[in-house]
Amino acid sequence: MSLPQLTNQIAVVTGAGRGIGRAIALGFAKEGADVACVSRTIQNVENVANEIRALGRRAWAYAADVADPAAVAAIAEKILADTSGKIDILVNNAGVTRDGLVMRMSDEDWDVVLGTNLKGAFLFTKAFSRVLLKQRSGRIINVSSVIGLIGNAGQCNYAASKAGLFGFTRAIAKEFGSRGITVNAIAPGFIETDMTSGLTEELKATILKQIPLNCLGKTEDIAAGAVFLAGPGGRYVTGQVLTIDGGMVMK
Fold this sequence. Notes:
This protein has one domain (10-244): NAD(P)-binding Rossmann-like Domain (Rossmann fold, 3-Layer(aba) Sandwich). Helix 1 (19-30) runs parallel beside helix 2, helix 3 (69-82) packs parallel to helix 4 (107-135) and helix 4 (107-135) packs parallel to helix 6 (156-176). It contains 9 helices and 7 strands, in the order E-H-E-H-E-H-E-H-E-H-H-E-H-H-H-E. By secondary structure, it is of the alpha/beta class. Strands 3-2-1-4-5-6-7 form a 7-stranded parallel β-sheet, with helices on both faces.
């Protein structure tokens, strides 16, 4: 019997307390990885870490504001101390929304979304870059959104942050490629999470008309994409955007 795809790997997943981040963390653990789970709320990631431990893998839980440089530096140092200085996979998944029309959007709503969704990915990538480059191996996966590809009225801050992740991904892929590190993005479509649970039936019906597969995605669909990019099958894939959206956006 072959070993799980991520045996002996250590992954860091931000936004791991619920939704897509939780699914990715659990998906990695099922494939043999140990997982450092990061979220703003310690109770959420403690719960996920316990789920991972129940699968027989090691797990650590950390609470941090991913947009705070000092907090990220401290968490990264703690993670490396707990993992004996080794990480193999970094998933920048932490994200928030503060929706509103541009003419009414506050500076704070812009800054919070760009800070969490885009700056957070920059800070965590920078924090672990020295270790990854020294190892000459590693996988970085940035979780973006189809909204970064097509835009959406009332979400200019969210769309800008997620589109920014595409450029960030490609630039870092070129910087890190010579050291054997792949850097890719995943662009989920409409996925069944807390963020979509509040959609009205009317809006959900409108969305489904745009999706050829005629259903919302599941968090496990995104986790499967992350496992592919982190595993042996993703060895020769870098600087790419993997769109997982039921066919909503076709390019």
